[in-house]
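User: I'm curious what two different proteins look like when written out as structure tokens. Can you demonstrate?

Assistant: Sure. I'll show them one after the other, since each token string lines up with its own sequence. Here's the first protein:
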Amino acid sequence: MNIALIGYGKMGKSIETIAIERGHHIVARVNSSTPIEKVDLAQADVAIEFSRPELALGHMRFCFDKKLPIVVGTTAWNSSETSILSEAKELDAALLYASNFSIGVNIFFALNKHLAELMQGHGAYHAELEEIHHLQKLDAPSGTAITLANGLMESNDDYVSWVHGENKSPHTTEGQLAVISHRKPDVPGTHIIRYVSDIDTLEISHEAHNRKGFALGAVIAAEWLHGKTGVYTMNDVLHFKK
């Protein structure tokens, strides 16, 4: 399979390594010095996009126009999600997007929802979400943390909104979930969901050891998307219930 890399930072280079190991070819690279309009994508079977939030929508639209399937790992463009997904469907494009492509994280998403269901109605417990990332992480909270927060609220009616705090727990009122972000050197990513009562604490967590899991998941997603049209997420790739 021929892959175009849109974004060639640390994640792009990790994806390149994994893709080549799996027998694929990198036929185009888009970066800050070579914008997508100047790159020949004619030989690409699929694009994998890990760039910046302000560039992601333009990259998606460019690929839609070229009928090039695109896997998007950039986050923090959620405010435009409804419109861009509608465009993809109208154009019969191929789009697969996720806040996190790690197989382990996507299993963690499912565990989070199941635990949230079990904890509904147990008012003695108060939930909070904590995420830790490297200093270069542009968005806070992370896209993964937002997905976890939304998943918890979808599965537990005791929570209707989330409140963000940096380096400390924010003030919350009834029905609000605390989301705490930390930025530290050389941390690939850690996410923790905990339910705390006066008696005990229930906690589940996911800790990435390196970027390999994210890169591998993105390549697996690209392999799955190749030859398809439509809008998909990692739930489709992993055959999870939505």
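Here's a second, unrelated protein for contrast:
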Amino acid sequence: MLEVLDLKKAYRSPDGEEQVVLDIPRFALGAKEQVALMGTSGSGKTTLLNVIAGILRPDSGKVLFEGEDLAALSESARDKHRARNVGYVFQTFNLLQGYTALDNVLLGMMFGPGADRAFAKELLDELGLGDRLKYRPSQLSVGQQQRVALARALANRPKLVLADEPTGNLDPRYAQEALELIQRLCAEHDAALLLVSHDEKVLARFERSETLEDLNAGVRA
């Protein structure tokens, strides 16, 4: 479903020096497959997710989604692709503070096929938030906010869910439960999952895991 080929991305430091963040010869993810990607803080994990999601364009290389090269699309076309096919669980959740849990999910749907109130409620209820529909993020615990973010990521029935350090803001007691929840929901909704983390314990939860250092052959060299 997803294939990354000869992907390169670099930034310029304040002194003008080019810093290569990604130099990945190949990475592939199958439909409905779940993969954990391990990397230290600042190693480029979030940059890779943003390139795969179409938020960032690589300097060179291809990001093939079901055979279509996202890197060759315009920004508006990448936005449409992301709305139709990709769910993103951000590390800081990125919930809109002035809106309720239900509204946050519904607003996410507006960028895809359109708002489906019944399905939004179904997702939140499945995540144990059926009695928190009208709560704003500030009225929810961190774990509950994460579940709203997961519901929003699944709301448009994506083929791929990207999760950026989804347990990074959680108490260790709840991190395992959160991982189980994300994996179960993705499997039940037939979505592939690419989850990045710096926590080695996360890798044990996945049948397949990679390290960004191994993928990033060019940077390592």
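A detail about the second structure: The longest strand covers residues 18-29.
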